[in-house]
Amino acid sequence: MDILINILLSILSGIYAGLIVARFVKFEEIRTQVKRVVQDIDFMNEGPNGELVMINEPRIRDLHYCYSELLYLKHKNSADVVGSLITAISSTKIAPGQVTGDIGDFYMVWQSMVRKMVPNIRVLLSPKPRF
Q: Membrane-crossing residues (predicted)?
């Protein structure tokens, strides 16, 4: 009888651990996609005092997709970071011809924001499946 209880508990704990890992992998997948979008931003020199950021429209859509996925998965803080990135990139893109300053300054900030995104631990550890 003890063996059956141990087997049952082992199976349940294995399923729970698998859920946690699957949730974390999904979060990492989204974060990697956001990193790729930021790293794929094309720059076009607009003059000696500043540069213009150019980004392909489909890539901005990728950020919107990541934003909605993070919200659906209940990673609100990370979704807010992606929302901030969308706003920052869009505002830089919308202002063509205006001096934006040194591209390296905000490009590094954007990359840093993505690298600092962390999953919501409560969501990862929640026993309720959400896929």
A: 6-25
Give backbone dihedrals phi and psi of 121, rounded to 5 degrees, phi first.
-60, -40
> Helical H runs in the chain?
2-39, 57-72, 76-94, 103-115, 121-125
For the cut 90, the answer to whether the pLDDT of residue 68 exceeds it is yes
- 3-class SS at 116? coil
> In angstroms, how far is CA 92 from the centroid of its own chain?
20
Phi then psi for 52, rounded to 5 degrees?
-110, 135
Q: Mean pLDDT of all residues in the chain?
A: 83
56 to 26, 41, 59, 98: CA distances (angstroms): 25, 8, 5, 19
